[in-house]
Amino acid sequence: MIEESATVVAVDGDSVTVESAIKSTCSSCQAQSDCGTGAISRALAPKMQRLTLSTPMTVSVGQSVTIGVPEAGVLSASAWLYLLPLFMFIGCFSLASYFLPTIGLTHELWGILPSTIATVIVYRYTAKKLQRVESAKYRPVLLKAEPLERV
Known about the structure:
This protein is an alpha+beta fold. 39% of the residues lie in helices and 24% in strands. A hairpin with a 2-residue loop joins strand 1 and strand 2. Helix 2 packs antiparallel against helix 3. The chain is elongated.
C-alpha cells in the first residue's frame, strides 16, 4: 500500500474530500539549482491534490488523515496508460512503413501521422476506461485518522 498524509477539507455523509501536497523528488536532488526540469516542475505542477473518497470513519474538517492506494492498482494503471500506447505506436508505425510506400509515400515521416493518431486514440480510450472501472485496486482508501489537536 502506498501511503500519503492528507488533510480533510470537506465531509458530506460518508464521502470525505481530502487535500494532499504533491511532493517532488526534485527537492532532494543535488543538481536542483542547475536543473531545468526541476525548475519547470516547480513552476507548472499543481501544489495540492484533492481526492474524494468514501469511508465509514468519522472525521472532521481540518483533521490529518493517512490515505493509501494499492501498489497493484498503480502498477497496472501505469502499464495500461504507458505500455499500450507505446506498443500501439510501434505497431502502427511498422504497418505504415510497410504499406505507405505502396501508394508512393516513401519518406519515414509519413508513418508518424497515422501512428500518432492511433496512439492518441488508444491513450484516450484507455484513460476513459480506467476512470470508469470501479475496481478496488484503483481506489484510494482512508487508512487512519490522526486525533484532532485541541488548542
